[in-house]
Amino acid sequence: MDEWKGIKVALSRVKRSEAARIFTIINDCKETVWPAITPGEMFGGGGFLLKPGQSAVFTAPVGWSGRIWGRTGCNFDKAGNGTCQTGNCGTALKCVASGETPATLAEFTLASLDFYDVSLVDGFNLPLVVTPINGRGNCSIAGCDGDLRPNCPKELAVKSGNNVVGCRSACDVFQSDQYCCKGNYGNSMTCQPTYYSKKFKEACPAAYSYAYDDPSSIFTCSGTDYILTFCSSR
């Protein structure tokens, strides 16, 4: 994608600051996406619109810890009131609370060593890839450029008309200790991959598929900027 390459070049020329991280959010989907961020003061107030091919750039200070996700099928009025088919954070364009499940989540903790991941523990609604730029250390790409919606197990599928718009987690649907990694399953020894989490992992090997999926799903990097791409074509 030429725009993506151009952004990488531009970011490589930006004077680095150890006190801040530059976030570039790209919509490479064929549909409009409404990114949502909590806490979102540094990110357009917590929510905005991105048409296909559009991008937005923000700066967050070291010390920021939060989550970013995409909303789909939204309808907001001029005052920023409305709802979405997936990822709702109440009835506001600018989010002050986490999104409703199912939602693909990018999670960040910015420090001298950043921690970041993409989680499907709360389900899936959009492909989302996090690419660290100009960092030091492991700095692996996190996330999911596959689309779970076409092959979502029917018992997990969220539909709008005949279209599958999201894929719920097994925990969300069945509310069992095994799927939710709680009770007797509330530790890494007893909470193991299930049929459903394996389906998620097959489609998205660099994303969290269940609560204790740490070894292959959480990443670290120092002094990095981030490119978040919905429906990445990398």
Automatic annotation (TrEMBL):
Gene3D superfamilies: Thaumatin. Keywords: Disulfide bond. InterPro entries: Osmotin/thaumatin-like_sf, Thaumatin. Disulfide bonds join C29-C231, C74-C84, C89-C95, C139-C221, C144-C204, C152-C167, C171-C180, C181-C191. It comes from the Eukaryota. PROSITE patterns: THAUMATIN_2. Belongs to the thaumatin family. This is Thaumatin-like protein.
